[in-house]
Design goal:
The chain is globular, with a radius of gyration of 20 Å. Strands 10-9-8-11-12-13-14 form a 7-stranded mixed β-sheet, with helices on both faces. Strands 1-4-5-6-7 form a 5-stranded parallel β-sheet, with helices on both faces. Helix content is 30%, strand content 27%. It has 9 helices and 14 strands. The chain has 2 domains: 142 residues, Rossmann fold, CATH 3.40.50.2020; 140 residues, Rossmann fold (3-Layer(aba) Sandwich), CATH 3.40.50.2020. The longest helix has 17 residues. With 313 residues, the chain is of the alpha/beta class. This is Ribose-phosphate pyrophosphokinase.
Length: 313
């Protein structure tokens, strides 16, 4: 089947990122009206012909996650009813990714439910960035491209001339931290963490040498910031010269911004997979890097039927 014209669309979750992707690709953003009726129901109207087109819908399912997820499903339904050729959902941040397995006898697997929503709504392919749990790719019976923010984050970290050590804030992130350490020629350390309750964690011991070094604490997301702030405290206690936090997804819920502002970190580096809200933008330590180039390359390669695996690092 011949591939239709490339069109980039967005909902209300992160239109700035969609515009940056269009600038990277040298194309115009296809107009899509997303609004709400007086009773709160979502209104969607696509502003131009998409018949047979190859559409890429940019919509991270960030807060308010339920609204943005529903909005995306409604846009997908509108596209399907407008005889679109192919739809790729570009979801830089996949909401509900932490609910990827049963943790109690009668608990849901919400990440799988979200996959079912998107599939039924009509996507043909999913592009996402740094999934919290890689097995979520298997929740879809269609192609899933899980890209990595590493090239963007590594380019920034390479500007730091200090003696670096990459720190994983828990055992689960060791593989990611080791990959960064290898590319930067840096040391590796791990924090032994004991979690007492959801969204609460207590950092205990540092495994590895951090004394006199700049510690880069690496995670896939920063939510309430309890874990990553506690990590900086224990690193400083163990002699780290400086601490920099580095994460792909800036969820920043609850007291996160205040915690980060008052933390031991000199800098918090994130990406724009989730737009930085007005409150977070006031944080003097926060620096947001754009994923537009990585997502733009992925979109170009998918549209032209070129290899996407060249982007996996």
């Amino acid at each position: 089947m011949a591939i239709g014209e490339l069109k980039i669309m967005t909902g209300s979750a992160n239109p700035k990122l969609a515009r940056e992707i269009c600038d990277h690709l040298g194309c115009e953003l296809t107009q899509c009206l997303t609004d709400t009726f007086s009773d709160g129901e979502i209104r969607v109207e696509i502003g131009s012909n998409v018949r047979g087109a190859d559409v890429f819908l940019v919509q991270p399912t960030c807060a308010p996650v339920n609204f943005h997820l529903m909005e995306m499903c409604i846009v997908l339904d509108a596209l399907k009813r407008a005889s679109v050729g192919r739809v790729t959902a570009v979801v830089p941040y996949y909401g509900y990714a932490r609910q990827d397995r049963k943790v109690a006898p009668r608990a849901p697997i919400t990440a799988k439910l979200v996959a079912d929503f998107l599939t039924v709504a009509g996507i043909d392919r999913l592009v996402t960035v740094d999934l919290h749990a890689g097995q979520i790719q298997g929740f879809f019976n269609l192609p899933v491209d899980n890209l990595y923010a590493a090239p963007v984050l590594l380019d920034h970290l390479r500007t730091t001339d200090d003696d670096l050590v990459i720190v994983s804030p828990d055992a689960g992130g060791v593989e990611r931290a080791r990959a960064y350490a290898k590319r930067l020629g840096a040391g590796l350390a791990i924090i032994d963490k004991r979690r007492d309750a959801p969204n609460q964690a207590k950092a205990m011991n540092v495994i590895g040498d951090v004394a006199g070094k700049t510690a880069i604490v690496l995670d896939d997301m920063i939510d309430t910031a309890g874990t990553i702030v506690a990590a900086a405290d224990v690193l400083k206690e163990n002699g780290a010269k400086d601490c920099i936090a580095c994460a792909t997804h800036a969820v920043l819920s609850g007291p996160a911004v205040e915690r980060l502002e008052n933390s031991q970190y000199s800098q918090i580096v994130v990406t724009n997979s989730i737009p930085v809200n007005e409150k977070a933008a006031q944080c003097s330590k926060l620096k947001s890097l754009s994923l537009a180039s990585i997502l733009g390359k992925a979109i170009h390669n998918i549209h032209t039927e070129s290899s996407v695996s060249v982007l996996f690092v």
